[in-house]
Write a structure and sequence with these properties.
This is DLA class II histocompatibility antigen, DR-1 beta chain. Helices cover 33% and strands 31% of the residues. The protein is of the alpha+beta class. The protein folds into four domains: 163 residues, Class II Histocompatibility Antigen, M Beta Chain, Chain B, domain 1 (Roll), CATH 3.10.320; 78 residues, Immunoglobulin-like, CATH 2.60.40; 73 residues; 90 residues, Immunoglobulin-like, CATH 2.60.40.10. An eight-stranded antiparallel beta sheet has the order 4-3-2-1-13-14-15-16. Strands 5, 6, 9, 10 and 11 form a five-stranded antiparallel beta sheet that branches. Strands 17, 18, 21, 22 and 23 form a five-stranded antiparallel beta sheet that branches. β19 and β20 form a beta hairpin. α2 packs antiparallel against α3. It is globular, with a radius of gyration of 32 Å. The N terminus and C terminus are likely disordered.
């Protein structure tokens, strides 16, 4: 499959109807330290530019048809230069505005069902942050680890970003793994906390000095007041000097941090999205973003550029007056959006990977019932899936909690549903999983007769017994064959 290079940018949109909205997006972003050029679809990555190695990296899923991205890296280099120029213009146009920040939210989970001594992958999912970059580090039992991989920054609907860090590992009993996320928002908070603390110390020190002065004034005559004022100044200076210096240092640190050259982030997002298979409802949205604010946008349903700030209005008018430029942008719906959507639909979107399902008992962390079951589905695509519970073949509506579909960052997903219940003799509890990759739902019945470790021991023992019988039978057959044709001679 060969995709056309797209020179414009994408955003995501949610359908107002109960339809599956497919999207194909392009993102180009930069700051004084960050460089990114990425193509993706439905929140996943297809290709990105590695500006350090000077090459393009194909990140198609393993179930996709092979495809080509000829000329994409050369285009990414050209787009990066444009991004840097636009960043410089925007900084000047907006007169070095206050840098916007959003704190990252992170979670850590295993890619597959955790089993001791079985290779797996840990995923650190970091989302909701702005601006890039974030730094992710791993430890095992408080010792730093270096073997990990970091994905590209992926755009979210609200203007923030998502990134994944993965760590191959083999679970060992007693091991503790941790994922640490570093982002400038955290440093900002630390600075603000220090600033608030220093201001509080300064204020408290001032009032203590004032109270001491007031108490001293009650014990002096008017002629002593000048000397007391001198003492107050000296005392205030001595007690206030360290806090004032510290206040000044923190304020200076805060200003230097928020006004740092690499703080401002400029990007261009372009998205082609549709919900019909014939692509008749295809829409292109092309956005230019500075410091998280969209300042100019092209929407194919409107047919022209719209500015949202003075700088944006000025640039929108210039583009709309350029007839050739405007016609070229409108033509991208057919040339770029529909062309690539057809390729993506057959190469990836129409394919399915069924889930692996496991039903297990988990420890109760408080609740109204003494027992909890967890139904887990792993490594499925696409992410739409339905997990339900049944008791004695009747749907369960209460005491059920479930995670959303959790992305692994490699086109695969997982989900976990929990059921709180009170065990009853003879009751049958089932987990039902339905997915596009299945010809019929997977139904797993829970057997409460034995604890899970005991069931595992029995399963292993039974497997060993069967294997032993097979080996014995094979040996007997071999012996019979070797013994055939021999004549016994009496002694």
């Amino acid at each position: 499959m060969e995709l056309y290079v797209f020179m414009f940018m994408l955003a995501t949109l949610v359908s107002s109807e109960n339809k599956v909205v497919r999207e194909f997006f392009y993102m180009n972003g930069c700051s004084d330290t960050e460089k990114e050029n990425l193509y993706g679809s439905d929140g996943e990555e297809l290709w990105h530019a590695d500006f350090i190695k000077g090459e393009g990296v194909v990140t198609l899923p393993d179930f996709a048809d092979p495809g080509g991205f000829d000329g994409f890296y050369q285009n990414a280099v050209a787009e990066l230069e444009i991004c840097k120029q636009n960043l410089a213009v925007a900084i000047k146009a907006y007169n070095n505005p206050q840098e916007k920040m959003d704190k990252p939210q992170s979670s850590i989970y295993a890619e597959d069902d955790l089993q001791l001594n079985v290779e797996n992958t840990l995923i650190c999912h970091v989302t909701g942050f702005f601006p890039p970059p974030v730094r992710v580090s791993w430890t095992r039992n408080n010792e730093a680890l270096k073997e990990d991989s970091l994905s590209q920054y992926r755009p979210n609907d609200d203007g923030t970003y998502t990134i994944f860090s993965s760590l191959p590992f083999t679970p060992q009993e007693g091991d503790i793994y941790s994922c640490t996320v570093n982002h400038k928002w955290m440093l900002m908070c630390l600075v603000l906390v220090q600033l608030c603390f220093v201001e509080w110390v300064c204020l408290l020190d001032f009032w203590e000095s004032l109270l001491e002065l007031s108490s001293s004034l009650k014990e002096t005559t008017a002629t002593d007041i000048p000397d007391m004022e001198a003492n107050f100044e000296n005392k205030l200076y001595i007690k206030m000097s360290p806090p004032k210096d510290l206040c000044f240092h923190v304020i200076l640190m805060l200003s230097a941090f928020t006004g740092a050259a690499n703080g401002y982030y400029y990007s261009r997002w372009a998205t082609c999205f549709h919900s019909s298979r014939d692509l008749s409802d295809m829409v292109l949205v092309d956005r230019y973003i500075f410091n998280k604010d969209v300042y100019i946008e092209f929407n194919s349903t409107v047919g022209e550029f719209v500015g949202y700030t003075a700088h944006g209005v000025y640039n929108a008018e210039l583009r709309n007056k350029d007839t050739n430029y405007l016609q070229q942008e409108r033509a991208e719906v057919e040339r770029y959006c529909k062309h690539n959507a057809e390729i993506y639909q057959s190469a990836i979107a129409d394919k399915t990977v069924p889930p692996k399902v496991k039903l297990s008992s988990v420890k109760q962390a408080g609740g109204r019932h003494p027992a909890v079951l967890m139904c887990s589905a792993y490594r499925f695509y696409p992410h739409w899936i339905q997990v339900t519970w049944m008791k004695d073949d009747q749907p369960v509506k209460s005491d059920v909690t479930a995670t959303e579909e959790m992305p692994n960052g490699d086109w695969y997903y997982q989900i976990h549903s929990h059921l709180e219940y009170t065990p009853k003799s003879g009751e049958k509890i089932s987990c039902v999983v339905d997915h596009a990759g299945l010809t019929k739902p997977i139904i797993i019945d829970w057997d409460p007769s034995l604890p899970e470790p005991e069931r595992n021991k029995i399963a292993i023992g039974a497997s060993g017994l069967v294997l032993g019988i097979i080996i014995a039978a094979a040996g007997l057959i071999y012996y019979k064959k070797k013994s055939s044709g021999r004549i016994l001679v009496p002694s």
